[in-house]
Design goal:
Layout (H helix, E strand, L loop, with lengths): L3 H5 L9 H42 L7 H23 L7 H5 L3 H33 L17 H17 L10 H6 L1
Helix pairs in contact: 2-3, 3-6, 5-6
Length: 188
């Protein structure tokens, strides 16, 4: 009979244990999300400066730069797409908490798992459809900047991968991750 501690620390090819592999994967995705957070903050700041520059150039100097709207649009798309996995990890996605919090614990567990599965499937769709979209748009260029049109959508597959990872990690998280205490649930 094999002890449970031995089962938890299964040795994989190459001498890695399952626990160490999971730790490495978790750290990798935490690092990717930190990069997403910093990139998102920088994109917001850049959008504010670019739009302010465009407004000043248009209304004060009557000479609006052609690239400003296009770059702002790319930054807005990237900001929105990069924010999706962060929102899932922090439980910021739209949910009907009032109804959920009134379910019995077993129903809450089932619903929370179904939500995680749906989010993971959406992440997989983002990965595969995002790759196809990038391929499809790679031959055209944006009119003002002459960048490949695929630049607008290149972030979708990576964001989908991170979204899928977050959803699968939450799938195996305890129910307490999903249920807010009654005082918190009533304020949100």
């Amino acid at each position: 009979m094999v002890s449970s501690s031995h089962q938890d620390d299964t040795t994989l090819p190459g001498g890695f244990s399952m626990k160490s592999l999971i730790t490495v994967i978790r750290r990798l995705f935490v690092g990717i999300e930190k990069i997403f957070e910093w990139a998102s903050m920088l994109m917001l700041v850049a959008m504010v400066f670019i739009v302010c520059y465009q407004v000043i150039m248009r209304y004060v100097f009557n000479n609006s730069p052609s690239w400003s709207e296009e770059i702002s649009l790319i930054l807005m798309i990237w900001f929105g797409i990069l924010s999706i996995p962060i929102g899932v990890r922090l439980h910021l996605h739209i949910g009907i908490e009032y109804l959920f919090n009134h379910f019995p614990p077993r129903a809450q567990w089932v619903v929370s798992r179904l939500v995680c599965i749906a989010i993971a499937v959406f992440g997989l769709v983002m990965i595969f459809s995002g790759i196809e979209l990038v391929k499809f748009t790679s031959m055209s260029t944006l009119p003002a900047t002459k960048l490949p049109s695929a630049v607008k959508y290149a972030v979708i597959p990576l964001s989908g991968l991170t979204l899928t990872y977050n959803a699968l990690e939450l799938l195996f998280a305890p129910l307490e991750e999903f249920v807010k205490p009654p005082e918190q649930a009533s304020t949100s």
